[in-house]
User: What shape does this take?
Amino acid sequence: MSIGIVGLRDRNKHLHINVYLQDGILLNEKLVEEGYAATSLDLQNDGLASTLNPLQADAIQKNKGLWASKQLLRLLHYIISTFIRPMLWS
Assistant: This one.
């Protein structure tokens, strides 16, 4: 297994990392693909976003993992549309 730091710390002082398993699989991709992780808005300009965003959209469409709950989807939609998008546009 190997770990690589992606960029600098985000606005919350978190480090974003890529975790590669022994067989070369990127664990980040696998977690998003199976619905066990969500993409970060802080990484939207990162090259990995172009890979992870379609995987997340597919997991949402297939109701996998986190996305299996319709209530969670409604809550996330509300949070993004009410709080996050306005912050990004300002």
